Amino acid sequence: MKATIYDVAREAGVSIAAVSQVINGKGKISEERRNEIFAVMERLDYKPSVIAAALTGKKTYTFGLLIPDISNPFFAEIARAVEDRGHQLGYSIFICSTDNNDERVERYLSVLQQKSVDGIIVGTGMDHRDMLQPVLRKSMPVVLVARELPGLNVDTVVIDDYAGGYLAGGHLAGLGHKRIAVLAESAKLVSSRERIRGFREACEEAGLEWDESLVRTNGADLVKDGRRNATDWLAGDNRPTAIFCCNDLLAIGALQAAKERGLRIPADLSIVGFDNTILATATDPPLTTVAQPTGRMGELAVDLLLEQEGSRRESPRRAVLAPELVLRESTAALRGKAPIK
Amino acid sequence: MKATIYDVAREAGVSIAAVSQVINGKGKISEERRNEIFAVMERLDYKPSVIAAALTGKKTYTFGLLIPDISNPFFAEIARAVEDRGHQLGYSIFICSTDNNDERVERYLSVLQQKSVDGIIVGTGMDHRDMLQPVLRKSMPVVLVARELPGLNVDTVVIDDYAGGYLAGGHLAGLGHKRIAVLAESAKLVSSRERIRGFREACEEAGLEWDESLVRTNGADLVKDGRRNATDWLAGDNRPTAIFCCNDLLAIGALQAAKERGLRIPADLSIVGFDNTILATATDPPLTTVAQPTGRMGELAVDLLLEQEGSRRESPRRAVLAPELVLRESTAALRGKAPIK
DNA sequence: TTGAAAGCGCTACCAC
DNA sequence: GTGGTAGCGCTTTCAA
User: Fold this and answer.
1) Does B80 sit within 8 Å of A70, measured CB to CB?
2) Superfamily per CATH, domain A62-159+293-322
3) Which class is domain A161-292?
4) Which of A287, A295, B20, B214 is in Cβ range 3.0-4.6 Å of B181 for a Cys bridge?
5) Domain limits, CATH 3.40.50.2300, in chain B
6) Which helix (H) or strand (E) holds B234?
7) For residues B65 and B54, is the Cβ–Cβ distance under 8 A?
8) CA B53 to CA B314: how far, in whole Å?
9) Total Cβ atoms within 10 A of residue B4
């Protein structure tokens, strides 16, 4: 069976207190005894129980990552970044895919508390404000990543979605496009709204007229919905010459719709995605897309979480990272016209 | 602060033993008292500590998932399946991306033991046999998923890789292809070897000659390596007319190489992938690929793990699932020739 | 039916 | 330097 601290103490002929001190590098133990104890630990393949340590007031070195779906490439990347930073610092991550389902969110939140995690990183967000409130009250560290929940007093790390949309809009308008459609996720997400707002701003600055009928939100199956909506647009006679998609999944849908209608990308239709997931490199042509710095986001989220330990922060911190336009091959100047500048 | 069982007992005017019984639905407590206690728990937002319970010999309801990389779509899907089945049964999952790096494997294995997980699902595999041995000896439940470690006495759930390769080979040969190249992962993986073996068998049965120079293994950056190797082949004068890729990432590389050379898919070159990840639907054309039933695999892995609890199994179980060829648009009959049958 | 009390493995404080 | 010991929150006999 598993060796305990008692086994080690007995084998080494010392008290468990001595062993504990050695484990934690505290107190004063003679070099000799210390080495002896280490040797015994090694021999018994002894691993100190984090469980037992946690019970005495220490941390569990564990936290939970609440996201919509780990099999969504964007969140998988966030997860990887969180995991890596956590691992560096000695923490383990519980993965919690919620499907944005209230019941699952509730259950996971409850489980994470029962398991005494040291904090929770939340990348899922719609109307979960109320569910988060109780855990916040227990002064459990929480940080939001890639999603915002306005009105909640929590540390947050996001990108500047407005700027991301603006980047996309500037790019497309700069290429001479006039009729540009927008495929967004749920309108409930502030990130979606911000991206559209930035996009619109850039278009209007370029003198384009804003056509609300060219903006559509999409449901659960992003690629399918995106495809359907794009098909609608492309079938009309005054079809858009470019589509801005608020994430890469939607862009894939748009790509499929275009191909189905025999439209060439980017000659006949330009498409811009968002997130720069691995999918953007798999499409043909490779997708021009707005990148989120997932690595940095995950890292920051962990760091902010850990900073909260002990001292509850007075006012929450908000880290806003810059998005970046990644030019690939799904966008081009409007046929015949040279791009501006 | 967090409420404990003592708080509940005090509030309800009973002993902690009574509260404990209510929590676990054991013992005999009068209906009345029970409801009263439930009410207090609710009011205090009390969550029983899994940590403390675990210390008294109960389980932690937690297990670890060791995979190469959670941001690899295939493993993200496995993870999702494992998570879902676990969640159903009340378990939480630690995600552990190892990058197939010995040091990381070692550390994660150690951490998982310190955190007293109830079991470990291993989807990472190369030469980790020796590292697994000690944890097996401590009678920690372990099951392998999607990877095999021959010689290890462990439950395993895999697909029939040989059959998967055979499926791909039969498909391509049936389409009339004669010169078919193979892009594989590391030759150390038995899954790679098996896929190739099955593929070869199918080709030979179709009367094709096997050309070892048309088989290449690839390193860490699968899409880049795949692209490079494919480029090599496609540049030659006796270029292959089809490529079988042992996973979708490699297929993307091949797709890129083909496009770079101006080859049309599938008219000039047929490509078959493996895994049927979301990537296969994002490519253009969509990728014909051999699907692994990730949902079922994850589920089975969890179930086998849980079956191991308590009674150590005499002889390990091996679940072999059937792969399935998913026909999409990246394959076609050799130019001019009608497909056989 | 209910409660008192003995641990589970470990930490931390206090004596020696 | 070193060891004894009181908990941490909970489960589980065993008596009452």
Assistant:
1) yes
2) Response regulator (3.40.50.2300)
3) alpha beta
4) B214
5) 62-159+293-322, 161-292
6) helix B222-235
7) no
8) 29
9) 17
The verdict on pTM exceeding 0.90 is: yes
Cis peptide preceding B266, ω within 30 of 0: yes
Residues near strand C (C-beta below 7 A) are: A 4-6, 16-17, 20, 23-24, 26-27, 48-49, 52-53, 55-58; B 14-18, 21, 27-30, 33, 52, 55-57
pLDDT tens digits along B149-199: 888 889 999 999 999 999 999 999 999 999 999 999 988 889 999 999 999
The contacts of residue A79 (CB under 8 Å, 6+ apart) are: A65, A67, A70, A93, A95, A298, B70, B71, B95
Nearest CA in chain B to A75: B71
CA distance B40 to B95: 35
Residue type, A224: K
pLDDT tens across B188-214, in order? 889 999 999 999 999 999 999 999 999
Q: Determine the distance between A330 (CA) and D11 (C1') in angstroms.
A: 62
CATH H-level, domain A5-48: superfamily: lambda repressor-like DNA-binding domains (1.10.260.40)
Mutation target to probe the A interface, by most A beta carbons within 10 A, among B59, B70, B329 is B70
Contact A266, A330 (CB under 8 A): yes
pLDDT of residue A312: 62
**pLDDT confidence of residue A310:** 64
Side chain identity, residue B100: N
Binary contact (A114, B2; C-beta < 8 A): no
Paired tokens of B154: 């462990």
- Measuring CA to CA, which residue among B157, B148, B230 is closest to residue B194? B148
pLDDT by 10-residue block (mean), chain A, 341 residues: 90 92 87 92 94 93 96 96 97 96 95 96 83 89 93 93 98 96 92 96 95 90 92 92 96 94 94 96 93 98 91 82 97 69 42
List where CATH 1.10.260.40 sits in chain B: 5-48
The pLDDT of residue B37: 92
